[in-house]
Amino acid sequence: MSTNAKKIFLLLTIVVPFLAYCVIYYTPIIRNAPFRSDEFVSFQFKWGLGNDLPNFYDSATGEYQYLDAKDSLIKTNVKLRETDIIYLHNKADELGYWNFPDVISNAGTDLNKSKVLRYVFQFNYKRKSKKVIFVTDFNDIPKLRDVAGQMRKLVEGTINDAQERYNKKK
User: Which residues contact residue 156 at a Cβ distance below 8 angstroms, ignoring those fewer than 6 apart?
Assistant: First the structure.
């Protein structure tokens, strides 16, 4: 056999079946992924002490309400750019947000009676949504606490950056 014939034989017996296998195997997985960026609708972010969550942001409406340093309730409208939304989705995917438990709190914590600072993240998609409640005194799994804290800082930072852009336009 000549060298070209060997190369063609190798290509047809190894590379082509491998590529066909990858396409056949991974296409349905990617198509049926529950949290895809092209299906992203909105996210809500709430925080506060205990069940009282006076601070919130809703990306669908741009409604942003928070208590300032003087405990005055500030209401404003801040819209995120499409790139901000994609960035948040990708970072959430990178941090493993979809694998977080629904409630990140110490064992035995009564969410109805606890007066500890908590954060509620909810990402909404066309077919599904994921809501996570993160109580800041959580210390059972340090790595999960750190990743949830990163998610909080990421969302807060993105909202604050968008608010600064909005204020500069005024």
Answer: 45
